[in-house]
């Protein structure tokens, strides 16, 4: 079975190959531009930002695997093969890493890590007094899927009060669940740290805007690890500069890499990370894809399928 890989550059192919071979020696991995592989011979692809129009040139492709949990980098191609199953990267490794990032972000906001980073750079001894403990803060997670629910469990582990908002109601022990647009205002009004782990869809584009931010209590902080499209940056900046918001951790941006002239890089209340919240190792991802291929070949269902109706 031949898998073409377009993720991490050509130099990463040996690592992908090693991961596939360790799990299932029947799978051989090749760089997407490998001229020795005829388009008709390709069974599967694992891709990040596939070149528009390329996927439709593979006539015997069975499944498209996204090398990330989001699939917007594939579905933005007007010609992506809609008739094929599209699998989002998932599994324990992705969720664990994201959970760690969200716990780190919330603790960083709680302890004002940005303030201390600036203090260290300027050799300034300035103590933030009277900060809250985790037990005194309510973290509200938008998007309670694979990643959001794991983040909720891990946040509870360090003492945060946790609530979640999604399209449908969830039952996670100790997590207050809000569902749908009707319950969004109540969710926002009872949130001290807002965490976005939503997928990028037409419904979620620009959701974190001035109107939404105004519904958060004064002093709320924001973490965006979903997609850059969720956040209206000028609205966030206005809310930070008026002190309605206390801080933000941003991992994803409308334009990536974040341009050097972006004000976000140096804002005193913003921590910027380079879309690094949850990047499982290639070996982990190869194992996940190889296991899914084995399931598919054996007639078992594929995991984490993209649903075109829902848009995620
Ligand atoms: P899932 O599909 O498992 O979960 C998505 C969640 O969002 C679900 O709870 C869903 O609700 C909810 N949701 C979707 N649309 C809406 C809406 N319109 N209103 C309210 N809730 C909505 O995805 P994952 O948890 O695996 O991943 C989430 C996102 O995280 C990815 O799409 C990607 O954008 C981002 N991500 C970022 C990474 C990073 O490094 N920064 C790495 C990996 C992912 P319901 O449960 O009711 O269906």
UniProtKB/TrEMBL annotation:
Keywords carried by this UniProt record: NAD, Oxidoreductase, Pyruvate
Entry keyword annotation includes tRNA processing: no
PANTHER family on file: 2-HACID_DH_C DOMAIN-CONTAINING PROTEIN, D-ISOMER SPECIFIC 2-HYDROXYACID DEHYDROGENASE NAD-BINDING DOMAIN-CONTAINING PROTEIN
Listed name of the protein: Glyoxylate/hydroxypyruvate reductase A
Short name of any one Pfam family annotated for the protein: 2-Hacid_dh_C
InterPro entries linked: D-isomer_DH_NAD-bd, NAD(P)-bd_dom_sf
CDD domains to which the protein is assigned, alphabetical: GDH_like_2 (cd12164)
Annotated D-isomer specific 2-hydroxyacid dehydrogenase NAD-binding domain residues: 104-277
